[in-house]
Structure formats: structure tokens, C-alpha cells
Amino acid sequence: MSDNGKFEPRIVGFVCNWCTYAAADTAGISRLQQPPNVDVVRVMCSGRVDPVFILKAFAEGADGVIVSGCHPPGDCHYNSGNYKTFRRMPLIERLLEQYGIEKGRFHWGWISGAEAPKWAQLTRDFTEQVRNLGPLNWKRMFASKEE
Amino acid sequence: MSWVTLTIDGQTIQVEEGKTVLEVARENGIHIPTLCYHPALEPYGACRLCVVEIIRKGWSSLHTACTHPAWDGLEVKTNSPLVRDVRKTIMGLLLSRCPNVPIIQELAAEYGITAPPFPVEDPTENCILCGLCVRVCNDMVQAHVLNFSGRGVKRQVGPPFMEKTRQCIGCGACTSVCPTGAIEIVLEEAGVYQAKPLGPTAAIYVPTLQAVPRVPVIDTDSCIRFRQQDRTNGAIADACGACQMLCEANAIDFDQEDEFLDLDVGAIVVATGFEMWDATKLSQYSYGKSPNIITGLEFERLSNAGGPTGGEILLADGRKPERVAVIHCVGSRDHNAHEYCSRICCMYSLKQAHLVRDKTGAEVYEFYMDMRAFGKGYEEFYERVQEEGVVMVRGRGAEVEVLPSGKLRVTGEDANLGKLVAADVDMVVLSTAIEAPHDASEVASLFGLGRTPDGFFAEAHPKLRPVETNTDGVFLAGCAQGPKDVPDTVAHAGAAASMALALLGKGEVTISPAIAYVDEQFCSACKTCISLCPYTAIGFVEADNVARVNEALCKGCGTCVATCPAGAITARHFTDAQILAQIEGLFRIPVIEIPNTQYPIPDTQLPPTKESNHER
Amino acid sequence: MPDNGKLKLGLYWAASCGGCEIAIVELREKILIVDQVADILFWPVAMDFKYKDVEAMPDGHIDVCLFNGAIRTSENEHLAHLMRRKSKVLVAFGSCAYEGGIPGLANLFDRQSIFERAYLESPSTDNPQGILPQTSYQAPEGEIHIPKFYNTVKTLGQVEDVDYYLPGCPPQPHQIWAVIEAILSGNLPPKGSVVGANDKTVCDECKHTREEKRIKKFYRIHEIIPDTTQCLFDQGLICAGPATRGGCGALCPQVNMPCRGCYGPAPHQIDQGAALLSAVSSVVAADTEEEAARIVGEIADPIGTFYRFSLPSSLLHRVRLG
What we know:
The structure holds 3 protein chains of 3 kinds.
Chain A: E1 11-16, H1 20-29, E2 38-43, H2 51-60, E3 64-69, H3 81-99, E4 106-110, H4 116-133, H5 138-144
Helix pairs in contact in A: 1-4
Chain B: E1 3-8, E2 11-16, H1 21-27, E3 51-56, E4 59-64, E5 75-77, H2 81-97, H3 102-110, H4 132-140, E6 147-149, E7 156-158, H5 173-177, E8 204-205, E9 217-218, H6 224-231, H7 242-246, E10 268-270, E11 275-276, E12 293-295, H8 296-303, E13 323-330, H9 345-360, E14 363-368, H10 378-387, E15 391-394, E16 397-402, E17 408-414, E18 419-425, E19 427-432, E20 434-435, H11 440-447, E21 474-476, H12 486-506, E22 516-518, E23 538-541, E24 546-549, H13 559-563, E25 569-571, H14 576-586
Parallel strand pairs in B: 1-5, 10-21, 12-19, 13-14, 13-19, 14-15
Antiparallel strand pairs in B: 1-2, 3-4, 3-5, 6-7, 8-9, 11-20, 16-17, 17-18, 22-25, 23-24
Helix pairs in contact in B: 2-3, 8-9, 9-10
Chain C: E1 7-13, H1 19-25, H2 30-37, E2 38-42, H3 51-56, E3 62-68, E4 71-73, H4 74-86, E5 87-93, H5 95-99, H6 111-121, E6 136-139, E7 142-145, E8 149-154, H7 156-159, E9 164-166, H8 173-185, H9 251-254, H10 272-282, H11 289-297, H12 302-306
Parallel strand pairs in C: 1-2, 1-3, 3-5, 5-9
Antiparallel strand pairs in C: 4-8, 6-7
């Protein structure tokens, strides 16, 4: 919670080094307005994003997770690393839904190095979206209702 | 190849067999006058001017040098009294037929004839019936438009029945070979065969005066040979070929085509340059509505000494301009076009203003937003151009209007005066932006390059690695990376070349340590990873029944790491443990709410938290 | 009980099917050797023992306790604490104690929905008054307490400090014997180790021929008759073998039944379902987003498929409550 009592979601963004991280970096250098709610974890390729990372983020207390890489086809620095991303993510999406984690808490997609404004926009929109969904706080949920 | 020996004017000459006396004389610097000879055409002996005295086996006789073979043992006299006498008679006859052709007048004067010695039938006659045009039209162009008709004194040259014919392709070969200027091409369809004022002018030309390598290229749209091939669907495949015939280096190859070469290289420098922004995209500049509204690049062609006007700055109707406006930032620094600064326009605009002042003395108005004279000596040049009397109007040129008189009205805001200004000028030069080539995205995919928001290729780091890309071994040079002027481009290209050479010179490549490796103790040979690697860096070793990573091929993307269900593959420097620890770290330090501060409390002041445990 | 130098053994079953107990009996004639070397102090499934007998023992009296079954009720948890206190070595015995097991799939639901299904909705139930289990009941003879049914199934490791984990549903007798031998010889690995299993996965023991994987379509086991020599995963059956610790001898794949994952995650994996999910989806032969979404969209019940035995021990433990 922030000073004014508004719920401030914690969001973890897994971004690839070459496209989305570059976009996020440029967004920062360009002083584009972004909410501080998104914490970025850099990986070399969105294909490196093991589903475990996403589950771990939610388990640790994230209210939302972003996975973003280079646009397919062709933009990927590793030619087809992002292909594995778009094969895994729809299944992760379904898994999370089955866990009871709303669709709106998980975003995966593509932001190229040239799309810094798009990254800034995504962080703003997604933070707002997750804020509206309210806290997830998996750890506390697990602890408080357990018996 | 046998050799023959002959004597010309007392000079003993040994030459290859098969040449004519005229050719041998010319090769040896002996002048024989002629009008109907062209090196690319069969000799014809029409004008008779090349007559020489040939002594063979003691017998002397007169022959035309252009048709007489250079036989062994000939003795040739090109300037004997007999020859001069005969030539003088021929000159007299020619001058009497064509009294007003300068070249004939000159030649006749050499032989002491100043007025036609015989009655003149038609003082406007310019044709000496040498047949060069007939030969070039039939033998070379193969258009078969021109031929002789009539006999004796009625002999004449022309198309069938002396009528206009569609067979004429308007190539102009006849006019170019005619020695007396008797043939003129009349353009009936304006524009079709008209020389383009700012375009290329010949069918074979050196692309630019500074071209490297400096060799000509053939414009197949204009070349007679290719045009005839196209017109006849290949039925006439060997038209003209004059250039091939005359090229002593034997360098002309009509069969040469574009070809694709597969080269194995160790480094690639991407120097694909830029394109000019299309000025018709912003209609307020009226580009295309008047021939006197030109882009900066077109101005360069106009003021080029090798250009269509020989470097004179002229309006489309050939007049000199009296007032010229130069508008900066057309298509750049503009939210309706490109937002970036094109960098080169301020300085070339100033240079062009200087050229206009220098060459025409016209008044010049520069409509500029800011003057970006950032380079060495640039500011000084800006000062100089101002001193030359160029009128600087600070403010974007807003609109160009073509007035009914043909004049151009430029309006814009003078920000210094704070009011709208207008200038009626003869010529407007638009300093158009440079932009990334239209196919930059395909080139980017080909080399795995990123692009910056302006569309140019992304360098690996904007400050520290401006030449390298994120693809190992691929470097950027020049405007492919972003707008640059010549000194910057030269510096950038030099850096790219030396980086490429440094890479090759080392003889070995440094690979990133952030690559994958398989812990063979845990690899269970499920082969899940094998099909995933975009570089086929991970392979299955049947002998050991494990997957193994080829470290030279692995680029470290980590796809296999994320996939390995046995957890047997590790991404060095991006291990699961490291990333999971990062995630834990994000949630380890709670932001404790303390009034009027947002700083997290340092770890040491926190109550001990229970360490999370990966083990079960 | 006199100290005769024999190993003091305790066995307990919490939320489990009893298969683990059967697995001990499956030691066959070697059970006699167990009897020679060990005294069984507590084994409610086999003989009548009272909890108070255990409670009466001094702490740490039992040398080794093989504890099978998940923690489903307050009784399970109570016994977990009790056996921990009374045992020198507490072994989570079998998949349920180790990772939650099949009872752990109840974490897809909560207590309320399970009660409603079991005591009200199931077709074989006749419960007109709609009575659900109570933790205490006032009977004429006095107040009766029955254990509390928890919302969430936990593993033994989640409620108590466990020394060793012995996976399997059930653990294979030869693996049990190997562990007993290790205990007898005192040749024990570091605390917290998984024992009676391999470092490699089921694939290592599977005799099917494997190729590079490019899967165009997933099948459920009733949909195709698989080639008996080729890898089942290669044929589109979701086999948990690649993501499951070996040690069982690849029993299921050998009879053309895809591995169900009972031995838990491979040594370096912390979430078996995620590991399997990643492997399964990564090798989908799809080069467009739409194609990929379509193919993985055909996989039914992701949690049930990928976390058949490991939901309580997974990173998220259970589906969201309330």
C-alpha cells in the first residue's frame, strides 16, 4: 500500500536482453513515465523464461507477471528463441487460470528494442489492470486460510 | 597471325595482316583526311578524300586508303604531289556540292580552295552521300530506316519514299556519325526521347564523376542494342555493339548479368545507406507541381559540372534564377514525417546557398528552424555564407505556392520578427530528410539486427559500441546506423572496417561465457532439447548417451535450459538458481511504510526472515 | 522393551491408500530379514498399536520411522509431530509423504467443495439431512472428537522436519531394501536427501527408442495404440518420464503406459509440473502463435496432467482459495 492507501501491485517482468530489455532501457533513458511497480528480471532470450520463474514470482508474492521478447518471426536475436515462448505461454496461461490466477495478472507478448513507448504504455496499462484486480499475495493467502 | 611490312611516306612499318592502309597510317600517326570513315563501320570509299598513291611491284596507282588492304611490300605515299592534286579536285567537287559545311570549308582551305570551283546547284545541301548514316542504321542499329535512293545526280539518303516512319527508334546514331551535320532529329513526341534535364544522358556512362571503380555502365533502357532486343523480342540481338567494337581493352560484355555470389566471410559491414524522404508526402511544399521546386539532391545534380547544365544553376526554361529559397527540415524534425534531425541538411543547404550566390548572384532566402553547424569549421562557414548576403529567415518554411506567373511563393513564420513572411522566388530547394531504406526491415532480419525507433539499424550501445551490432561479426557503417555527414561517415566506416579487420586478424573469436552446458550426470537422454537449438549447438552423443553443447556454436539464449525437464542443462551466468534468487530478492525487502519516506529499511534493521528453502 | 541391539522401526500411514505398506510386504522373504534385524515398535496397519504407547516412549526412542501418506487431517499432522519427536530418523516414505501424491490433487478444491461432493452430491450418497463431518459431536456417552479435515493437503516435509525422502507410488521394493541396507550399514547420505531413487530421470531406464521431438498433436492414452518400441512422448502421449526422477525401472512406459510422474522432480528441478510443461510445450511443431496455441490448447486439465503427484509440493501448492 502506498501513502494514500491505494493498493500498489508488485509486478515481475521477465524480458529478453535484446528487445524488450532494450526497450525498457530506452524507455528509462528517455524518461518515459512508468509506474515503479514493475520489477524487471533480465534473461538473454524470452525462450529462457522457464515456467518455473513465472510460478516462483507468483508464489513469492507478485500480483502480476509480464513475459516479453522479440517479435516473431524474425526479430529474435537467436532466430527462433521466441518460438518456444509462444509455444509455452498459452499453456502457462491455462495453467494459471486453473490455479485461480486471473488472466489479467499474466501478460506475455512482444516489444522490440524500437518500442520503448510501447513498453512504458504496457507497464502503465498492466499496473492499472492488476491494481483493479486487487492483491493476489499468494503467500499470505496460503498462510492465512491454511489449517 | 602473319605479319606484313610496308612503307608509308618512307616509314617502314610492320603490322599484322588484315588491316587497311588507312588504319595502319592512323595507328602510326600519319594523317590522311577522310569524311566517310568510322572505325565501327565497314569502310566504304565514298568520299574519296583518303586517296593515296600506292606503288606495288613498280606500278603506281591511286587508291582509297580506307578500302585498300595493307599488303606486304606496299609503298604508300599519302602526300605526294599527285595525291595532293587529286585530293584538291575532290575537295573542289565536295565544296561545290556543299558550300556551307564548315568542315568541308576547312579541308578545302587546306588545299587552297576558298570558293566552290564548280557551279553550285543547291547552297543548302549538306549531305555528301558518304553513307555513314546508311551503314550505321542498317549494319549496327539494324533499324533499316535510312538508305540511298535515286541514281547519279538524283542520288539521295532518306527513309523509304522520304516519308516519316515508325521504324525509326530515334536512337540518334545517324546524327552522331554524320560528318557534316546534315541530319537533325526532330522531336515530335515531347518527352519521349527528350534528354531528361536532371537524369542520365547517355546509354553508356560513368555513374558519377567520383565513381569507384571508375568504369562505365550501360543503361539498358537507352542502349540501342538492348532496346532493339526488347523491341523485337530478341530477334535482333546484335544491334550496334559499337562500344564493344571500339573498346581496345575488350571490356564490354553484353551478356554480363547480375549474379548472386555465395561467399564465406568472417565479418560483415552493413553499409546499406539511406534513402531520400519523398517530398510529395507533405503537400504544402508543392513538390512535383513545378519543375523549379527541387530537392537538395536534385540541386546537387544541377550544380554539378558533369550535370546536364554543365554546372550552371538554371531554371527549367533555361533562365538564370533571380531569387532562390532554401527550406530546411523538410520531412525531418516534423511530427507529420520524421521526428529526428537529419543532421546533414543545414550544412548542405548553406553550401547550396553559397553556390547560388557564387554562380548566379541571385538573392537567397534560407528558411531554417535552428542552424545546426556542429562540425569542425561549420560555424565559420555559416558566418561566411551570412556575409555573402544570404537572407536567413528563422522559422520553418510553411508553404510553397505555385503562382499563375510560374513564380513560387514561400510563406513561413519569421520567429525573430514574430510575424509571417512571404517571398516570391524563381526556385525553391527543399532540404529533404534522409531516412532508412524502405527494405531495412528485411536487411535487419537477414543479419539479426535491431532497429531504433527512427528505423535505422541499432548499434550495440549508443555511446560505447556505436559500430558493433548485437550480432557478433556484423558491423555498421555510415547512414545505415543513422544520419551522418561525410566526415562522420568516413570515421564510422573506418571504425567498422578496422573492427572487422581486428576480428579477422586475431584468427580466433572470443565467445561469450554466458553459454549453456549439460551436466552429464543428470542428462537422461530424453532428447527434448535437440530440436530446439536454433544453432544446432546442442547435439546428442550416441556413444555416451548424453546431449552435449558445442561451445563454439552456442550463443547462450538458454532455450534448452528452460526446456530441459531433467534440469541437467545450466545457462552459465543465468542459472536457474540466480534467477530464482533474483525473484526472491525482489520480495525480500519489504517497503516498510514510514511517514514521509519511501526508502526501504536496510536489511540489517529488519527482523530476521526465514530463509526460503528450495529443498523439500 | 529391552535393548537387544536391533533397529527400532516405526511405520505410520497418514493420508494414503495403503500401497506403501503393501510395498513393504512386497519385500517378500526379505521381510524375515527385516524381522531379524529390526524390532517394529509401531505399525498400525499391520497390528494393533495405540497412540498412547508411542506417546509413552522417550523422545528419539525409535531409530527410523517410515512415514507414508500426505497430511490431510489434524490427526495426520499430530502424528507427524509425534513421530518426529519419537524418532531419530524420519523418512517421508512414498510419494504422498514426499510430494503430496494423489491425495494432493484435492488441492484443486477446498474442504467445503469436497464435503459437498462427497457427502451431498455424489450419486451413491444418501444424506437427506445434509450432515457434514463435525470435529466434535455430543453423543449420549460423551463428547466425541474426530480429526479436523484441512482445506489443503500438505506434504510431510511441509509440517515437520524430514530427514530423508523415499519417493514412489509405491516405492519399489528393491529400492526400499537398498535403503534398509543403507540404514543398517549406517551408510547414510546427507540429511534432506532423496533416497531410493536415481539422479537421472525415467528416460534413462526406459527402453523405448527416442528421437528429436517435434509434436504436431497430443493424444490421451485412450486415443491411440502406441508403437511399442518408440518413445511415447515422441508419439504425442504426455509422458512425465523426462521430468521424473528415475529409480522405478521405467515400469509404466515398459508396458506402454506413459509415466505418471510418481517419483517426483529430477534432482535440480523445484517444480515438476512446470518442468514437464516446459518440455512438452517447447517441442510443439508450430511456427506461428495461432498454431502453437491450438496444439497446446488440446491438452486437457494442465494441473492434473503435469502435477498428478506433486501439486502440494509445487511452488503454488494449491489452487487459489476464496
